[in-house]
Amino acid sequence: MGDAAETRRRILRAGTAEFAEHGIAGARVDRIAANAAINKSQIYAYFGSKQALFDAVFDNRVDVDMADVPLDADDLPGYVAALYDMYLGDPELVRLVTWARLERTPIGPLFAHREDDGRAELDAIRDAQKRGTLVDDVAAEDLWSMLVSLAATWAQSAIVHTAHAGESASDHDRRRAALAATARRAFHAI
Fold first, then answer.
1. Cα–Cα distance for residue pair 96/113, rounded to 1 Å
2. For the chain, which end, N or C, has fewer CB atoms within 10 Å of the first or last residue's CB respectively?
3. Per the confidence metrics, is the pTM higher than 0.90?
4. 96 and 178: one domain?
5. Which residue, among 37, 34, 61, 33, has the nearest Cα to 47 in the 3D structure?
6. How many Cα atoms sit within 13 Å of 4 on the Cβ side?
7. Dist. CA 84–CA 181, nearest whole Å
8. In 10 A of CB 189, how many CB atoms?
9. Cα atoms in the 13 Å half-sphere on the side-chain side of 36
10. What is the pLDDT of residues 106-155, one digit of tens each?
11. Are 45 and 73 members of one domain?
12. CATH code at 190?
């Protein structure tokens, strides 16, 4: 990996930690530079602004996480269980999404700036609806949104209980089973 690519990677890693902890407004470029072991001016050279760095951090995380947990419209129970595991194992992602909602996009689609985001997932859902394996009385956009939200029931933004990795395996197994059963009952055509 070249020096430029390595520097960019370090900036993204330090930016991820800083934005997850402090949000966009609270993040400090000086801390990001110190944690990336670079000169502050390099952040501006690579990304242009703190806001553009947040966008790069956010987009990078979304790309990685969507690739790690692809939607299989024929296995929604497995999908929501995998999302639960991802949220549990990646609290930074949930925090970044929360900050993006609080400071950037309080209403409407969170990923509106990402033209292709969700297209493959929505196409897969629509295809399954046409094949009769998923209910067709719920719009694909709404079904996908409900699946993602269902999986986040115990994420950091949860109102009643926030799950954490230190809880017992039986607690996590019980939650995965509940998520899977709910997705199956709600969305699989009978």
1. 16
2. C
3. no
4. yes
5. 33
6. 3
7. 14
8. 12
9. 29
10. 888 777 666 667 888 999 999 999 999 999 999 999 999 999 999 999 98
11. no
12. 1.10.357.10
